[in-house]
Amino acid sequence: MEILELSTILLILASAFSLINIRILKLPMTIGLMILAIVLSVVVLSVGVIYPPFLEEATSLTQKLDFSELLVNVMLPFLLFAGAISVNVHELLKDRATILFLASFGVLFSTFVVGTGVHYLIQMPVFGLQDLGLSYVDCLLFGALIAPTDPIAVLAMVKKMNLSSITETRIAGESLFNDGIGVVVFLTLLNIKIDGVENITAASVGSLFVTEVIGGVLLGAVMGYLGLKLLKYIENEHTELEVLVTLSLVLLLPIISHKFHFSAVLGVVVMGLFLNQNIDADKEEDGLQRAMGDYVYKFWHLLDETLNAILFILIGIEILPIFSSFQSSFIFVALMVVPLVVIARWIGVSIPIGILSMKKSFEKRTALIITWGGLRGGLSVALALNLPETLGEGKGLIMFLTYAVVLFTILVQGLTLKKIVKS
């Protein structure tokens, strides 16, 4: 199937599913689309039972589609940039130390707790999974890919929660930055896996981590600063040109990042925050204006909604190859891993909040809201698909666990988050 045909099918499905959700399901878009995507997968599997060649063709199509490449290098930069320019950047800058501490500690803590927990679980004879050959590093890779939350899903939910401005900014900012940190941790562990633990030194790991993080942040800052100067030079009358400039910057940054092994995820977020020169309404009377006109924000909002719809359909479709290596014991492991992920997330944000609350004020139950609002999505699935095939059936287990956590956080946590906030 050609890329044009595939794009057409995805856009038609996204339009149809969005319409069904708005008119019939009336659920938050993220949750509604996820449910419909799962229904699509069930329909495909059901038809495949009756007519096996249909399932083989559908599975073959998903395997040909490089979802990991598509999301990480194409969709994610656009989605993160759209998220970054929608955040209250002034509130975020005031509270940047809090947000960075929450994001970094939470990801690192969750990675090692979940990874260690999964490692011990699969060693239990009762599950019979010792033959999968998953090492401790492999389990840490799962911990790293499941630690970052989905900023697209989180931002969509948070905007409807009527939280205080500072709490909303903390949740949105933490979600944006923990993506970048999570990807860096994952790539660092993946490098250890590929090169072999015996060939890795603390200095090489530290160098890789610093290059990814510092390089990504600096590149995003430089391109954001230059882009800001250019947008101010263009002025808001030429909105079409502003759209072209922002599109060009978002496409260019990942290319440069890939060449120098910087974190494109962190770079795009930082660049988006630089360009997001939102000002308070009362300051507009003093003749100040935003770097980008309203048309640009509306364009990125439209692109965000469109890509978000396609993303969740792709997540639903990508579940099909998992069944080729499925074992019944995967379900029992998943039932233990899902609460482990949630608890690790809660402890990982509670510790920083407990430390920071000595000097800063936090809204009541902030840790609970951040924990339960930590929805996982496309990034976790993409990173899981990016695992080397040398893992064999072990990759099938990691994929199954990833989907279990993604489905639980979106369907269960997403549907009950409003009640948690209001209780």
What is the domain tally?
1
**Number of helices, where a helix is a run of at least 4 consecutive DSSP H or I residues:** 17
CATH fold group: Na+/H+ antiporter like fold
- The end-to-end span amounts to 49 Å
What is the molecular shape? Answer: globular
3D structure, described in words:
This protein has 423 residues and is mainly α. It has one domain (64-422): Na+/H+ antiporter like fold. It has 17 helices and no strands. The chain has helices spanning 3-25, 29-50, 52-64, 67-84, 89-94, 96-122, 136-146, 151-158, 165-195, 202-234, 239-260, 264-275, 294-317, 329-356, 366-372, 378-385, 393-422. Helix 4 (67-84) packs antiparallel against helix 16 (378-385) and helix 16 packs antiparallel against helix 17. The longest helix has 33 residues, at 202-234. The protein is globular. Residues 279-288 have low confidence and may be disordered.
Which descriptors would you attach to this protein?
single chain, 423 residues, mainly alpha, Na+/H+ antiporter like fold, 17 helices, 76% helix
